[in-house]
Design a protein that fits this description.
The chain is an alpha+beta fold and 166 residues long. It is 14% helix and 30% strand. It starts with 29 loop residues before the first strand and ends with a strand.
Length: 166
């Protein structure tokens, strides 16, 4: 029997915004839900991630100063744009929601323009809920001085639990 090679979806430009795989079902507790304008759903109308799924995405680390810590801290996790791509998102605006019901609007353009992380590690250790975890949207403040403002600080949602793509 002859095996056929499948053409990667990236070779089909009209499908480029969406990943070439179906989003797997989480095996562990769900730590992040994306709903709204997402194509890759694995639970009803939402794309959900457990921590292991987020760990399998490409990871980036950087140290940056923030208003919440006295010294620069190292944050590690997938880029927000990679999480959005994994869910097949196709919106212009995000509404990030935290465990404490904090909600903030984030333009998708921020995720494209800057290396915004969905941080899952702080100084190489998982973040407990009592220390802004388990997930924290963080901007690379030390890489771009224009990000050091109340506007961008307010877009950093700690204890992140969900993102609505609009």
């Amino acid at each position: 029997m002859q095996r056929r090679k499948l053409l990667p979806l990236a070779a089909l430009p009209w499908l480029a915004p969406w990943p070439a795989w179906a989003l797997e079902a989480p095996e562990g507790p769900v730590v992040l839900s994306l709903n709204g304008r997402v194509r890759q759903t694995n639970r009803g109308a939402s794309a959900v991630f457990d921590m292991a799924m987020l760990e399998r995405l490409p990871q980036l680390s950087y140290a940056t100063r923030t208003p919440w810590y006295a010294r620069p801290r190292k944050f590690t996790g997938p880029l927000l744009r990679d999480v959005l791509a994994a869910a097949g998102s196709h919106g212009e605006q995000l509404r990030a929601m935290a465990l404490n019901d904090y909600r903030v609007e984030i333009p998708v353009a921020d995720a494209q323009r800057h290396d915004v992380l969905v941080a899952r590690l702080l100084d190489d250790k998982p973040m407990p809920v009592r220390d802004k975890g388990p997930l924290f949207i963080i901007y690379p403040f030390d890489q771009n001085a224009s990000l050091r403002s109340a506007l961008y600080y307010s877009r950093c949602a700690w204890q992140l639990k969900a993102i609505e793509v609009q």
